[in-house]
Specification:
By secondary structure, this protein is mainly β. 12% of the residues lie in helices and 36% in strands. The radius of gyration is 23 Å and the shape is globular.
């Protein structure tokens, strides 16, 4: 047993050290140095010093929860809420504005921004985003969010129900000296219910229906995680996959185009599980500071909902002029999937607005496919085969 103590302790120390590194040197190189900023907080604390430490966000209303003047860096956001709407986390939207810019740099449904898909609540344990106990009800962001001349954070409640209790902390550093960068934090939501783009429109994966086609590059056939113009660096994404088939959804490659080249990918991957740092079609909950699967399908095969994340905190993907991140939906874009991504990146403020977030009616979940539907598929198969002694794998 004593022989096991050293490697286990060394492993634990290694995890602590590299999880403490994000976008700068490790904490052990900086935490002891004198700081010149002032720590500030905006929260939902009861102004009367009572215990009603929350605000109410009425249905169909937008509330500005933080408006900061001057320069600084938001270092931590904590939020939790209560509502009669079971989809409150999907029906509420968080928006962030930097430096009095007209357009938001962040516009994402609340739960999906913090790493929880489909309006659900579950544990997420990554470096920049954490959904913590109780059962993921506490939502945390550790993304540094700098601003030079002001910051504003809003919550819009698109629900038909009030958010009766909304609790929050916005912890930030107030700086006197100018920031060293013009890059600002951005986050954007994207969704596509894809269709097979094979020549015969069949969902042929893993050669189930014969020889598989080669991928033909047409930008519009791919799922777009992010397309943006300007100078910046891409740092990560949450990908929420709802699959109507029990077959593996992840043979599609990742293609990243940098600075004007949209014919040959600058960075080309080998499969969806590979860009998320896993292998061989995983179906198990796993969470690392940089990548993970906090939510996996609990149905047959890969039928249903899976959540993946990847953060390039070890080496953000730089671009000087523009950036395009595409994902195949199955090999050769052969599958129907409901794909939702939330991209996170830093860039200079763009005079053009980001694409508009669809209203909640356009963000609703696809209906669940369950064992009853599978039995109906079997019935159709038996009918097609003459209703004889059919086992189901003929």
């Amino acid at each position: 047993m004593k022989q096991m103590l050293f490697p286990l302790t060394l492993f634990s120390l290694t995890i602590v050290c590299f999880t403490s590194q994000m976008f700068a040197d490790g904490w052990e190189n900086t935490i002891w140095k004198e700081k010149t900023y002032q720590n500030k907080r905006i929260s939902s604390a009861d102004p009367t010093n009572g215990n009603d430490d929350f605000i109410k966000i009425p249905k169909k209303k937008t509330i500005t929860i933080a408006e900061i003047k001057g320069r600084g860096i938001i270092k931590h956001i904590w939020m939790t809420l209560a509502s009669k709407d079971p989809m409150a986390r999907k029906n509420a939207v968080i928006r962030m504005y930097w430096d009095n810019h007209e357009h938001p740099s962040v516009e994402v449904p609340l739960g999906e921004f913090f790493g929880q898909g489909w309006g659900e609540e579950y544990i997420v344990n990554s470096l920049p985003l954490v959904a913590a106990p109780k059962k993921g009800k506490s939502m945390n962001s550790y993304f540094p969010m700098p601003f030079e001349s002001g910051a504003k954070i809003q919550i819009e409640n698109e629900s038909e129900e009030d958010i009766s209790n909304f609790y929050f902390y916005i912890d930030y550093e107030e700086w006197k000296s100018p920031l060293e960068s013009q890059l600002r934090f951005h986050s954007q939501w994207s969704r596509s219910i894809t269709k097979p783009n094979t020549s015969n429109q069949r969902e042929n994966e893993w050669s189930l229906f014969g020889e598989m086609e080669k991928t033909k590059f047409q930008k519009e056939n791919f799922f777009s995680v992010l397309e943006t113009e300007g100078k910046g660096q891409f740092i990560g994404l949450n990908l929420y996959v709802d699959s109507p088939t029990p077959l593996w959804y992840g043979e599609g490659d990742d293609l990243i185009f940098i600075d004007g080249n949209q014919t040959t990918a600058t960075l080309k991957g080998t499969g969806t599980e590979d860009v998320f740092n896993t292998a061989w079609s995983p179906k198990e909950v796993f969470m690392h500071p940089y990548f993970g699967y906090p939510r996996v399908s609990d149905s047959i095969g890969w039928l249903g909902r899976t959540h993946l994340y990847r953060f390039w905190v070890e080496s953000p993907i730089r671009f000087e002029k523009n950036f395009l991140f595409l994902l195949e939906h199955g090999h050769a874009n052969s599958l129907t999937l409901d794909l939702i991504s939330v991209a996170y990146w830093y860039q200079s403020l763009n005079p053009k607005p980001m694409k508009v977030l669809p209203k909640k009616e356009m963000r609703v979940n696809q209906p669940e496919i369950n064992f009853r539907h599978i039995h109906k598929w079997r019935d159709s198969f038996r009918s097609e085969k003459g209703n004889g002694e059919i086992w189901g794998n003929e």
